[in-house]
Amino acid sequence: MEHSCRPLSVRRLPLLGAEVDVVTPDMVMDFISTARGQKAIVANHNLHSLYLFQKRADMRRFYDHAALIEIDSVPMIAWAKLMGHNVSRAHRCTYLDFRDTFWSRAVTEGWRVYHIGGAPEHNAASKQAILRRHPDAQLEVRSGYFDVNGPANDLLLADIAAHKPDVLLVGMGMPRQETWILNNLDRLPDCVILPVGAAFDYEAGVMYTPPRWAGQMGVEWLVRFFHEPKRLFERYFVEPWVLIPQMLGDLKQRSKRTV
User: Fold this and answer.
1) Is the bond preceding residue 211 a cis peptide, omega within 30 degrees?
2) Cα separation of the two ends of the chain
3) Residues near 233 by beta carbon (within 8 Å), at least 6 away in sequence
4) How far apart are CA 49 and CA 65, in angstroms?
5) CA 206, CA 173: separation in Å to the nearest integer?
6) Contact (CB, 8 A) for 141 and 131
7) Which end of the chain, C or N, has fewer beta carbons within 10 A?
8) DSSP labels for the chain?
9) Under 8 Å CB-to-CB from 109, ≥6 apart: which residues?
10) How does pLDDT run along the chain (259 residues), one tens digit per residue?
């Protein structure tokens, strides 16, 4: 897939065995605005996705198709700075931080937004939470609980095509959302596609939302862990060890740049 809509001015960095773009949330919103009418993936990387990137060929193929790759991790930004890259906290892009900016732009510019994700019993609550803040938003919501290989998938793709979204948000968790996008990319309409994880579960109030100061201080992961230790222990305390060879590779490249 060619990335004719990828901004030439955006810096793409090699980091921890993958690549990321140095963009702010406002730059992402501008990209969505200019890329409307084209098929473009706005992906994101955090430490969990970097782990999956090393373990799964389909995840590597997914990122090969991305027009833009956000940094959704304060620890990654800290590591990039340590490696001598010109990045800052302003370059962290995550839905909870930019959601109201996103929906304000969606209303102002008339974006048609379609979200796939969440349990069916929570879809109405997530949609209403957004419409309370942005009553003129054009939003369709569908459950993420379906057989991705069965007829329900064909019905969903037909429904997406019928609504002709400008922006498609896919919130089914990693790596399910990325592999679904990858496997159905040729059948999706021309729109900007963003994997957004549990974004709408936060909107529905069915998942704990860390205070935004925790993200600004770089301890959001720790706050999340204290609320869901069983689910997140492996992600936060086991998976990062897989990235040690990539960290050593970054250190080697930094030493070459400073010689």
Assistant:
1) no
2) 37
3) 225
4) 15
5) 15
6) no
7) C
8) ---TTS-TTSEEEEETTEEEEE--HHHHHHHHHHHTTS-EEEEEE-HHHHHHHHH-HHHHHHHHTEEEEEE--HHHHHHHHHTT----GGGB--HHHHHHHHHHHHHHHT-EEEEEES-HHHHHHHHHHHHHH-TT-EEEEE-S-S-TTSHHHHHHHHHHHHH--SEEEEES-TTHHHHHHHHHGGGS-SSEEEE-TTHHHHHHT-S----HHHHHHT-HHHHHHHHSHHHHHHHHHTGGGGGHHHHHHHHHHHHHHH-
9) 33
10) 445 577 768 999 999 999 999 999 999 999 999 999 999 999 999 999 999 999 999 999 999 999 999 999 999 999 999 999 999 999 999 998 899 999 999 999 999 999 999 999 999 999 999 999 999 999 999 999 999 999 999 999 999 999 999 999 999 999 999 999 999 999 999 999 999 999 999 899 876 566 656 666 666 766 666 677 777 677 777 788 999 999 999 999 998 877 6
- Written as six digits, the tokens of 42 are 């706005």
pLDDT at 1: 47
User: What type of residue is 98?
Assistant: F
Name every residue whose Cβ is closer than 8 Å to that of residue 133 and which is 6 or more positions away in sequence: 100, 103
Q: Report the amino acid identity of residue 131.
A: L
Which residue is it, tokens 């940094």? 71
How many Cα atoms sit within 13 Å of 252 on the Cβ side?
Answer: 8
Residue type, 114: Y
Residue with tokens 């955006």: 10
In one letter, which amino acid is 127? K
| Residue count of the chain | 259
31, amino acid identity: F
Say which residue the tokens 């001015």 belong to.
9
